[in-house]
Specification:
The complex is a heterodimer. By secondary structure, chain A is α/β, with parallel strands linked by helices. Chain A is 39% helix and 15% strand. Chain B contains seven helices and five strands; from the N terminus they run H-H-H-H-E-H-H-E-E-E-E-H. The chains are: A alpha/beta, B alpha+beta. The complex binds flavin mononucleotide, iron/sulfur cluster and FE2/S2 (inorganic) cluster. Iron/sulfur cluster binds next to helix 18 and helix 20 of chain A.
Chain lengths: 510, 159
């Protein structure tokens, strides 16, 4: 039977993919319409693909109103059409990538376990089931994997701490709160390849001796919640999850828990409090969650991408993963190109590519066609970079050396119409809205920050010194990175775009 | 939403039914509050003591939860909840203009509901659709690449 693919990814659906699928179903009653995952080329969504003897041929972006012209041009045989892009895998945006975590992106039906297996799924878990706890840890340590949630902490070290903590009950918690603007890789894993995350969490459980896991998933991701729950049901039915994982003596149970719109609940201790049913306030460390986490039990908290890297590390071996990357940043990073960018989407490559290559060559500059003026890397707590720093390599240490951070790998592009004083104000405002309220420098400082920037915008540039003082207080007096890192976007905006903080002249007295 | 026809006593009774399936969970508070809001459209005052009792918390503690999390509402929302993304990637694509247009067309600001109860306007900070901004949500449906024409169509349908 002829197969036509229409992504079920939230971005494709938000651009009309469900209508396209319905129109195709009506127009091609003999074809199977498969709701696949997204390839990650946002500007081509909804990207419709049709299976032909020469491979899949893509057409995008497709609106339901394009269907008659598609049919007229013989697209079911891969016929010519202005929106034909050829074989997606030959597209330069995809051909330049090294896809490990996103190897199956676009290829499979996300909730088909048969598809998952046919494309290499469960090979990592199968191998892991034959390894001793010591060998399991060894493999993760050797891979060089560092946490993809932002802090870049070595995953193997964290797991070893939990493994060695004596306790009858331990937990694996997946941080799927993905609150950073400009990031969507976690969402795409959960919507597009949920079994990958499930497999990674089971391996984590095997390694540290945990039999229960939770995915703390933000409420802003309804499609991901649906896909994860569907996949968990299938995995339970097929014996991947449950009392006997793949017929072994190991049990693993997994549940999705939905957040409630608090950015700070992405911070791991606040997340744990929220899971326990409390206000999501940040806990002082120590104790580390690894030793006293969920309900006081030893707990692994990892980002979606960290856990999703695990199955391939076991399937392909730590050495192969470790061979990619630069310096102390090993493996690949699913980078997210967002904002005012011509070719936005998901770009997975080994660490080391430069910011300029990402924004200008791969991203093609702005969508508006105007010059790029600033990019924010690493979410709302990340610094703004001007094009003069586009030689910075995508690597934890290289960004830190330039007072920035790669965070969760989001890059947000702005054109020359951006007012950086307003972006600095927004950083403070966001901190004020999302502060958990525990420490004064964050809670009060951010509100003061908004007021001070308002004065600067009104023309009082003498307030700049006060703003820098305030940033200092927040940096050193905050318990977590929400208050502690909000100064990064603010100070980088002042440093790289000083003209935006003095151009607002006071109105002349009449 | 069922609340409109219910007395406080009925709401309390319904709440007890709604939260019952969650009692056996580890950490049931958030799933319970989500379920209550899904049923009523907000967390009614009459539900609070029922939830508090089930969780062995004080009413003040349950109020504390409801007020901490942006998702939970103390009062009913409009028939259409329009959430517009205010985060950086959408700002880079002109979301401020979209928000200003919505606010002017509806005559309300953030967190407000039109007097006829048709629309509530709320901010949201990122929907993970940041490569196709500006983005938003119309009740449960996500929308991307919002422009003035698309927004007007959304507002028209919501009236
Ligand atoms: C305010 C704040 C928000 C955070 N949000 C997230 C998030 O959404 N997702 C995430 O994985 N980590 C987030 N983190 C980092 C977590 O605290 C933690 O470092 C991470 O979940 C550990 O997992 P990893 O080692 O796999 O990166 C946040 C931290 C802070 C301070
Ligand atoms: S810095 Fe802000 S968010 Fe972090 S613990 Fe302190 S008050 Fe809470
Ligand atoms: S910033 Fe608006 S969807 Fe991410």
């Amino acid at each position: 039977m002829m197969r036509i693919f229409v992504p079920r990814d939230a971005l494709a659906v938000s651009l009309g993919a469900d209508d396209v699928a319905a129109a195709l179903r009506a127009a091609c009653p003999d074809a199977a319409i498969v709701r696949n995952s997204s390839r990650g080329m946002a500007w081509l969504e909804p990207l419709v693909e049709v299976e032909t003897p020469y491979g899949r041929i893509g057409y995008g972006p497709i609106d339901a109103s394009d269907i008659p012209s598609l049919l007229a041009s013989g697209f079911v045989d891969g016929g010519a059409h202005p929106k034909r892009i050829g074989r997606p895998e030959d597209h330069p945006f995809l051909a330049r990538q090294t896809r490990i975590t996103f190897a199956r992106a676009g290829l499979t039906d996300p909730v088909s376990l048969a598809d998952y297996r046919a494309h290499g799924g469960l090979a990592g878990l199968t191998r892991a089931l034959g390894l001793s706890p010591a060998d399991l840890i060894d493999e993760v340590v050797k891979s060089g994997l560092r946490g993809r949630g932002g802090a870049g902490f070595p995953t193997g070290i964290k797991w070893r701490t939990v493994q060695q903590a004596p306790s009858a009950q331990k937990y694996i918690v997946c941080n799927a709160d993905e609150g950073d603007s400009g990031t969507f890789a976690d969402r795409m894993v959960m919507e597009g390849d949920p079994f990958l995350l499930i497999e990674g969490m089971i391996i984590a459980g095997l390694t540290v001796g945990a039999t229960r896991g939770y995915v703390y998933l933000r409420s802003e991701y309804p499609h991901a919640i649906t896909a994860m729950n569907q996949a968990i049901d299938v995995a339970l039915r097929e014996g991947v999850l449950g009392d006997s994982v793949l017929s072994s003596s190991h049990a693993f149970h997994l549940e999705v828990r939905v957040g409630a719109g608090a950015y700070v609940c992405g911070e791991e201790t606040s997340l744990l409090d929220s899971l326990e049913g409390k206000r999501g306030q940040v806990r002082a460390k120590p104790p580390l969650p690894a030793l006293s986490g969920l309900f006081g039990k030893p707990t692994v908290v990892n980002n979606v991408l960290s856990l999703a890297a695990i199955p391939d590390i076991f399937a392909g071996g730590a050495a192969a993963y470790q061979a990619l990357g630069m310096g102390r940043s090993r493996g690949t990073m699913p980078i997210q190109l967002a904002g005012n960018i011509k070719h936005g989407g998901l770009f997975e490559v080994p660490f080391g590519i430069t910011l300029g290559e990402l924004v200008m060559e791969i991203g093609g500059g702005t969508a508006s066609g105007r010059p790029v003026r600033a990019v924010q890397v690493g979410g709302p707590l990340g610094a703004y970079f001007p094009p003069a720093l586009f030689d910075t390599a995508f690597d934890y240490e290289a960004f830190a050396a330039r007072d920035g951070l790669i965070g969760h790998g989001g890059i947000v592009v702005f054109d020359d119409t951006v007012d950086m004083a307003r972006m600095a104000r927004f950083a403070m405002e966001f901190c004020a809205i999302e502060s958990c309220g525990k420490c004064t420098p964050c809670r009060i400082g951010s509100t003061r920050g908004v007021e001070v920037i308002d004065k600067i915008i009104a023309g009082d540039s003498k307030q700049l010194a006060l703003l820098e003082d305030l940033c200092d207080t927040m940096k050193f007096g905050s318990l977590c990175a929400l208050g502690g890192f909000t100064p990064y976007p603010v100070l980088s905006a002042i440093r790289h775009f000083p003209e935006d903080f003095s151009r607002h002249q006071p109105a002349l007295a009449a | 939403m069922e609340y409109a026809f219910l007395s406080p006593i009925e709401i309390a009774a319904r709440t007890a039914e709604i939260i019952a399936p969650y009692l056996a969970l580890e950490g049931p508070a958030m799933p319970m509050l989500h379920a209550v809001q899904a049923a009523f459209g907000f967390v009614p005052e009459a539900s609070v003591p029922v939830v508090a009792n089930a969780l062995n918390l004080s009413r003040a503690e349950v109020h504390g939860l409801v007020s901490f999390y942006h998702d939970f509402r103390h009062e009913p929302a409009g028939r259409t909840v329009l959430k517009l993304c205010r985060a950086e990637a959408c700002q880079a694509c002109g979301s401020d203009r979209i928000a200003a247009h919505a606010s002017a067309a509806l005559g309300i600001g953030w967190h407000e509901t039109t007097p006829d109860g048709a629309v509530t306007l709320e901010p949201v900070f990122c929907l993970g659709l940041c490569a196709a901004g500006p983005c938003g949500m119309v009740n449960e449906r996500t929308v991307a690449r919002i422009n003035i024409a698309r927004l007007d169509a959304i507002l028209e349908a919501a009236r």
